[in-house]
Design brief:
Blueprint (H helix, E strand, L loop, with lengths): L22 H10 L14 E5 L5 H9 L4 E6 L2 H14 L4 E5 L13 E6 L8 H14 E12 L8 H14 L3 H17 L8 H11 L3 H8 L9 H7 L6 E5 L7 H4 L2 H7 L5 H12 L3 E7 L7 H9 L2 E4 L9 E4 L2 E4 L2 H11 L4 E2 H10 L10 H10 L3 E3 L13 H15 L11 E5 L4 E5 L1 H11 L28 H8 L3
Parallel strand pairs: 1-2, 1-4, 2-3, 4-5
Antiparallel strand pairs: 5-7, 6-7, 8-11, 8-12, 9-10, 13-14
Helix pairs in contact: 2-17, 3-17, 5-6, 6-7, 6-8, 14-15, 17-18
The structure holds S-adenosylmethionine.
Length: about 500
């Protein structure tokens, strides 16, 4: 094994922001599952550690959006760390640090106590000693009550594609050269075999993966498929591996997945509802849903809450729309058909949100006053779960925060990222995936496409300008014709069974 334990080290990974890693999203996942979460995003002294942070876009965005936090990103690849540090310096983000380290031998005592940890796209892609390093950090440094977000390729959905991955590795070895060239060459062989009717490559799932890989940036394809230790996992095995850190599984950072009625058919739910044992329940869900990528949320010591306490905590949240009121989608595609956001309840809510961020409790009162918030329809869990879960709204972490100027930490970071997007040459190091527009009010990034980020920065005007913040203008985004608004619910769920 190489110094990277077989991990692709000769091509940088895509630079992306991942909304599921934001503490506000993780705290909400806890609340939706009736688990106490100290809504970490509201704390201004939070310590956030991202393991395998890649080129640092998520860590940078969270740091810029929460100037009181301490954010630490750890990654093996010097090129990733160098780029992330360079952006932090350029944008003057002083509350983020990037550590170049191999998790397999990293000394956990170098880290402070951690409130929230996240490892996105890490667990299934790295070798066992590296996974063990993550568990050592969590066991030693994650505080009691602290949160972990862990994404990984899940079994049994991925089992179907194990042959595809092996073929890419083996063919790549014969081709030689840089990982992205090997991946591109190996993909040609895969396509030729698929056209020739190779059975393994012609199942709908594997064929879908091949089509997807053809459209993806070479850096992404290399890091997705060319790692020697890549191994999809069953949820129960991940849970066992995390045992030294004493973590309890809470639910999914993909919020809609926490609503069984959206992801299971009625017949499947009738069976799953009879299963009390959590590991078996998760396995049956994965088997029913064919979930290929899991975004697990864990708490070090889950404390359950009553339904009343849950409603109360959700009612205290403030939310804002991410699209115009008349573009809200009320019919969400689900496993068993379509779930309709009851227009009588949601329309007055959406109308009120069209005027700006509102407290969920106030929105429930507005819906009730409109005469329809009765009889179990008007619950905070549905309001928040459906609107935020479908990407049509976001939690506003600091409703009271004054607007971000273009010269604020968030504004400076957005400008630095926009500069890179517009200046980058095509090629492996210039690849930009999903972006996050940093915002102090949101306390997280607004997920958007690179061109949307550039357009938003241009609209914000030069540094020092008192232009309104991006989040204050959210509802006007679509008017401006900016693409890349967060995907709709059916797309969110669809992506989970493809990735
Ligand atoms: C698939 S990428 C995901 C990057 C980022 N989290 C994201 O989702 O955009 C996995 C990351 O893990 C890092 N990594 C791999 N092996 C590692 C190790 N032994 N120690 C620390 N980081 C490692 C890689 O450099 C890479 O940036």
């Amino acid at each position: 094994m190489s110094w990277s334990h077989g991990y692709v080290a000769d091509v940088p990974y895509t630079a992306s922001y991942h909304a599921y890693q934001a503490p506000s999203q993780l705290g909400l996942a806890c609340l939706l599952n009736r688990v106490h979460a100290p809504l970490p995003a509201r704390r201004d002294d939070l310590t956030y550690v991202e393991v395998g942070c890649g080129r640092g876009r998520t860590a940078l965005c969270l740091a810029a959006s929460n100037p009181g936090w301490r954010v630490i990103g750890i990654d093996l690849l010097p090129a990733h760390v160098a780029e992330a540090r360079e952006i932090a310096t350029e944008a003057g983000i002083g509350n983020v640090e990037f550590i170049e380290a191999d998790l397999a031998s990293f000394d956990a005592s170098l880290l402070p106590e951690i409130d929230v940890a996240s490892a996105h796209g890490f667990w299934s892609w790295v070798a066992d000693p590296v996974r063990d390093g993550l568990v050592r950090i969590l066991a030693a440094r994650l505080r009691a009550g602290g949160l972990l977000h862990l994404s990984y390729n899940a079994l049994p959905a991925w089992q179907e594609a194990i042959g595809l991955q092996r073929l890419l590795i083996e063919a790549g070895d014969r081709i030689g050269g840089r990982s992205d060239h090997r991946a591109a060459g190996a993909l040609e062989l895969v396509q030729a075999l698929r056209s020739a009717g190779a059975a393994h490559l012609n199942t709908p799932y594997v064929s879908g993966l091949i089509d997807r890989a053809r459209g993806l940036a070479p850096g992404y394809v290399s890091h997705e498929y060319m790692n020697r230790s890549w191994r999809p996992c069953f949820h129960a095995d991940v849970l066992d591996a995390l045992a030294p850190a004493r973590l309890d599984h809470v639910g999914s950072a993909v919020l809609l997945e926490n609503f069984p009625e959206l992801v299971l058919t009625d017949a499947q739910r009738a069976i799953c509802d009879r299963i009390d044992e959590p590991r078996l329940r998760e396995l049956t869900r994965d088997i029913c849903m064919q979930r290929a990528l899991r975004d697990d949320v864990y708490v070090r010591g889950a404390r359950r809450m009553s339904r009343e306490a849950q409603e109360q905590a959700l009612a205290e949240l403030t939310v804002c729309l991410t699209r115009l009121p008349d573009e809200i989608v009320y019919a969400l595609k689900t496993a068993s058909g379509t779930a309709t956001l009851t227009p009588e309840f949601f329309r007055p809510v959406v109308q009120a949100l069209g005027e700006g961020p509102r407290r969920v409790g106030d929105l429930l009162s507005i819906a009730a006053a409109a005469g329809q918030g009765q009889g179990g329809v008007g619950r905070a869990i549905d309001l928040v779960g459906m609107l935020v879960g479908s990407g049509q709204a976001m939690v506003v972490t600091r409703p009271e925060a004054s607007v971000d100027s273009a010269g604020s930490a968030a504004g400076r970071l957005n400008r630095a990222i926009a500069g890179r997007i517009t200046a980058d040459e095509p090629g492996p190091s210039g690849e930009t995936g999903q972006c996050g527009l940093a915002s102090t009010r949101l306390g997280a990034g607004l997920a958007c496409a690179p061109d949307a980020l550039v357009a938003a920065v241009q609209a914000a005007g030069p540094p020092g300008d008192a232009a309104p913040p991006v989040d204050a203008r959210l509802p006007t985004w679509r008017h401006a014709g900016i693409p890349g608004i967060p995907p709709e619910a059916d797309e969110v769920l669809q992506m989970r069974s493809i990735l």
